[in-house]
Amino acid sequence: MDDLPFLLKSSLENFYTLVTEGPLDRESRAEYNITITFTDLGTPRLKTQLNITVTVSDVNDNAPAFSQTSYTLRVRENNSPALHIGSVSATDRDSGANAQVTYSLLPPHDPQLPLGSLVSINADNGQLFALRSLDFEALQAFEFRVGAADRGSPALSSQALVRVLVADANDNAPFVLYPLQNGSAPCTELVPRAAEAGYLVAKVVAVDGDSGQNAWLSYQLLKATEPGLFGVWAHNGEVRTARPLSERDAVKHRLLVLVRDHGEPPLSASVTLHVLLVDGFSQPYLPLPDAAVAEARADPLTVYLVVALASVSSLFLFSVLVFVAVQLCRRRRAASGGGCSVPEGPFPGHLVDFSGAGTLSHSYQYEVCLRGGSGTGEFKFLKPIMPNFQGHSSGPAEENPNFGFSIQ
């Protein structure tokens, strides 16, 4: 029984007991084959042997142990639900029910992590099935702990950390930040005609929600009003003049720029730039873009109606003023009593008399009507005193002294 943790102990003559010398560990050795030899003291000595098999029974003295203290699993975004993303494994050195392991998800440290809606674990084999499609842009990584417990009494358990990394897929097209493409009036870039080759016209700014090469962007000029006049730098989106401008170049230019990522397959977006060539930034007038001109001419009927309304209003106001002036004139004449003083003396002047003979008259007569009680001699109205055609003769103009004007 050399090197065996057993000992024969005699309590009575020819009576022996097999006892252990120390604790037995079933996980180190579960069975012992012992041969006991008995020898007498005679001559010759006779002996006999006894074979004993000792089986060490198990007790639940070992907790389950994971193959790794932490696991890192990777899953591609936009995965199908119930996708197997990986497994954890734990073993127990005990036997029987003491070695049967069950797996479970432990509550996460972050209470805001909806772990129950993200992953599940098979209690029997430790397989981890994602419960829903994962989005890299919303959740790039998350971690949780899994537990493994045996079925002994009392049950022993252990735990391990699981970290899930969501791999990016090229599911986001580039998004253009500038110039804005929101359907409003287009933004026009002004370029002086004195610009030399390499003049910076504009810079297309775009972003991609993906990562890695899926977010690497390149720029390309797809279409231009005048090919060869402008160019786009592939890596930074800068739009520059490719040659000096000339007077023969058109005033307005439209550029179509393509922005593409490096994913597989690549996704792209396009942006339109409007460029206006000007003689200088200080010129007082710049032609309107086509959209603004179209908007200004969209409803000429409204302009006509406004003009017509203004004309009618002005005519009505003028008529009212004339009517008021006439009424005031009549009231003033009525208040003055119609009295007029007519000077007897002739007023010479250089007026033409068409009294019938066609000759120049040498005498004129004015009728002065003064406002009664005014005390002033200001003239109010001027009216001609028609000649007396009674007894009209075809004589010279001097014979018709009654032709003239009166101030009233």
UniProtKB/TrEMBL annotation:
Record's bilayer topology term: Single-pass membrane protein
Domain Cadherin: from-to ranges: 6-66, 67-176, 191-286
Transmembrane residue ranges: 303-326
UniProt record, GO biological process: homophilic cell adhesion via plasma membrane adhesion molecules
Pfam hit, one: Cadherin_C_2
GO molecular function list: calcium ion binding
CDD domains noted in UniProt: Cadherin_repeat (cd11304)
Keyword Calcium recorded: yes
A cellular-component GO term for this protein: plasma membrane
Keywords of this entry: Calcium, Glycoprotein, Membrane, Repeat, Transmembrane, Transmembrane helix
SMART domains given in the database record: CA
Source domain of life: Eukaryota
Name recorded for this polypeptide: Cadherin domain-containing protein
Species of provenance: Neovison vison (American mink)
